[in-house]
Design brief:
The chain has 424 residues and is of the alpha/beta class. Helix content is 45%, strand content 10%. The longest helix has 32 residues.
Length: 424
């Protein structure tokens, strides 16, 4: 973490900067942040990041259910010195916050995952590398040094590839593996469908695959269902982008090898596994010593099963509303999941977190920490690494002030007694 950064000083620094004629290009207000990011992104990139499933009711409910919960501040509690740190899997981190996995960041900014990793490292905020990253995990880990980083895993149809990803995560010193369970099928994402655009078909967001030796071998297998594409100027342009996205030098050499096309075809055929069941978790448990967290848990019974199957943590999440339209909100599901695990394993949450009050409410309902997604991606779109850092600083400063103004001087003092509202 930057030695000079103090969340208690952030507000003053912003005002003093304004007095001196300096204003950040990264808005503090989330709606302004999203609007400015939209102007910095292509329509396809913004739809992919900002959109959700169906009528986008779940994404809206993530916010409205946060708003249905109220904080009850307490007075005269001596909050002059506050401690925002927590301990997670034996490691102390300065804030109850992680950067959740977001794929295809090359659509948002040229430095993508690298810029996010550097910003996270400066703040010592754990960064969960996306399975659908634009940069291999090893390169981002090298940029982050000893700063905490995790790896998110989509369980593909190849268990050999699953094992390879897990082994690579261990080798590049990831602190945990997050298995995302809610994307064994791709949700009906209306904005993407209206644009008829999926970035993976251009070879974007598959760097974890093309950098993997097991996947390279899988690419040599015959394609049982080769795509039947009609040649048009659009497909030619797509092919050019596909070849450019594939690692290596020499456009025509890559084109002649056929590897870029094989990579996309193989990825599309194996990236998700709708047949995945609880019993498969033992395969991963036997192949890594890292803590395993299950992301996408919303039902208390599934939370109990996670404990029974030897998992080390849960992330309560509905994928930011991107998978099931009409799903329960993450914040609504959180208390039931926390109660179900009875403290056996840590429970984190994501989906809908936009400000410090949201972080406070999630912690009060039993979350150990929260993950954010869209806010830091919008910061990335506007200002690259610095933009991500600005969003992080604003969020943790907001949380620090909320915690103090609510009458809590440390995270350990935040509990359900601090709230009223939605099924408390």
């Amino acid at each position: 973490m930057e030695k000079t950064f103090n969340p208690s000083e952030r507000q003053k620094d912003i005002y003093l900067g304004g007095f001196a004629g300096r204003r950040s290009a990264v808005p503090v207000d989330f709606d302004l942040l999203e609007s400015r990011a939209r102007s910095a992104m292509s329509p396809e990139a913004f739809a992919y990041i900002a959109g959700a499933a169906g009528m986008e009711g779940t994404m809206q409910r993530n916010r409205s259910d946060f708003d249905a919960i109220s904080i009850v501040p307490r007075m005269l509690r001596d909050v002059g010195h506050r401690d925002t740190s927590i301990e997670l899997f034996g490691r102390k981190i300065p804030f109850p916050l992680l950067l959740g996995p977001v794929g295809v960041l090359e659509m948002v900014h040229p430095q993508g995952d690298i810029a996010v990793g550097r910003a996270a490292a400066q703040m010592q905020v754990p960064y969960v590398f996306s399975n659908q990253a634009s940069v291999p995990m090893e390169k981002v880990a090298a940029e982050m040094g000893d700063a905490p980083h995790w790896f998110q895993l989509y369980w593909s149809k190849s268990n050999d590839l699953v094992a390879s990803f897990a082994e690579r995560a261990e080798r590049c010193c990831c602190s945990a593996i997050v298995v995302t369970l809610d994307t064994t099928l791709l949700g009906w994402r209306t904005r993407d469908l209206d644009l008829a655009y999926l970035p993976f078909l251009e070879g974007k967001g598959i760097a974890q695959y093309t950098s993997d030796s097991v996947f390279q071998k899988l690419m040599d297998e015959p394609d049982a269902n080769p795509p039947n594409r009609k040649v048009s100027w659009a497909t030619v342009q797509g092919l050019i982008r596909m070849v450019n996205a594939y690692p290596g030098t020499g456009f025509f050499a890559k084109l002649k090898s056929g590897r870029p096309m094989k990579a996309v075809s193989k990825f599309v055929s194996i990236y998700s596994n709708p047949s995945l069941s609880w019993k498969e978790l033992s395969f991963l448990r036997q192949r890594t010593k890292l803590p395993i967290l299950l992301k996408g848990i919303l039902h208390p019974d599934d939370a109990q099963l996670a404990v029974e199957y030897g998992m080390n943590g849960i992330i309560v999440s509905n994928h930011g509303g991107r998978q099931v339209d009409g799903s329960i909100s993450a914040i609504h599901a959180l208390p039931g999941v926390v109660d179900a695990v009875k403290g056996a394993i840590p429970v984190l949450m994501d989906s809908g977190v936009r400000g410090g009050a949201d972080v406070f409410k999630a912690l009060a309902l039993g979350a150990k920490a929260v993950c954010i997604g869209r806010p830091y991606v919008y910061g990335l779109a506007i200002g690259g690494q610095e933009g991500v850092g600005e969003v992080l600083k604003n969020l943790v400063a907001d949380f620090d002030l909320t915690m103090g103004l609510a009458g809590c001087k440390s995270v350990s003092e935040i509990g359900r007694q601090c709230l009223v509202g939605l099924k408390q």
